[in-house]
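Example 451, ligand beta-D-fucopyranose.
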Amino acid sequence: MIQFPKDFIWGTATSSYQIEGAVKEDGRGESIWDRFCRIPGKVRNKENGDIACNHYHLYDDDVKLIKSLGVQSYRFSVAWSRIFPEGTGKPNPKGLDFYKRLINSLLENEIEPLLTLYHWDLPQLLQDKGGWMNRDMTDYFTDYATYLYQELGNQVKKWGTHNEPWVVSYKGYSLGNAAPGYVDFRSHLKASHHLLLSHGKAAQAFRELGPKGGEIGITLNIEPTYPLEDNEECKKAAAIKDGFSNRWFLDPVLKGSYPQDMVDIYSKFETFDYIKDGDFEVMSSPTDFLGVNYYSISTNKPGTQGELGFLGVESVKTGKPVTFMDWEVEPQGLVDTLQRIKADYGDIPVYITENGAAYEDQVDEDGTINDEDRRAYIEMHLKACKDAIDAGVNLKGYYLWSLMDNFEWRYGYSKRFGMVRVDYDTLKRTPKNSALWYKTVIEANGFNQTK
Ligand code: FCB
């Protein structure tokens, strides 16, 4: 039996835009994802989050569902534009009330909330002011965070500032395949700076105005990078990729600086004039935990093709099995990631705030969904968590992505990550076999290894 520490937290995760729907109800303001989904060609099948899983209305059933699976903690995000429809200024009590009802329902069912302040759905009116390119965003974000600390801090003890700022700035401002859809690498650098600065400011405000005994952290997506071959050129490519996707975010938050090798590389086209005195101190304000979202690895060689060709890096597939996202399955990457965080950044408590897999599920005639590939993925990654714990990593909990199938951003509803199936015609929820297995894991605080 693979046995977890007694106080290990078993959770599951979602995000506001991906599940809530009800985008025009109770005074919610437009978000950048509402807008982005309307740009032709940006989201598969012109899909959007207008209805999504209708969680806004079905939240009470969803909490019961979480409870029925034995899950102990629920990570969700707040839609900023429900709280401040204009992003700043006058709060909207009806929007706040939804989260109060959700949180009360969680607490009544003894499920611990982990609230993420920002999972990508910026109020459109703030985007109209430049979005994360505008340094003022760091103050608007802190005001929004502080308002929620004061309104919800009695009930919510675990808080996350941002979810995956790399995706927000790189995909949103440079690749252009996430909202707001800009295509300019320098904008990515500037936006990432403001995102991390806003994290630091909100973390400082938490110390002053947040709940006593509460915890605040940030969630970063970490993709360990490996050289394709064991030679200097491939190692250099892997190091650049690591600097680009991982260290650019880990270092400011946990070390208070940007990685010098990347500053040198980016200095060819960026002057960093947006960095102000004292920023690094703020960005590295002490936090209580690091959230890690882990899905896959990246393997690298020198080259000029593809997204990072301009940095001399090409990432390649290595023939490992892939999920329906075409992401290679490599649980060892999670062990390496966790050990590396400890070695390079110290013994900060870590939660896996997301891990999971999309597969093409089949519904059997009797209605069961035997998603063995997803179950096996989860099992292998839980084993990786246990290996990391045994190696001394301070890993405190695991949040499975996702509670239920939902709006998977530019892929629309075509990629199902849920342990619970959502029938998008009826919105009926049906636990898949992976969910039933996860329940047994939680009950036993461990599992018998089959993979
Ligand atoms: C992460 C996101 C989450 C979901 C998963 C599959 O990057 O945080 O919302 O889309 O990927």
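Summary: The two ends are 13 Å apart (CA to CA).
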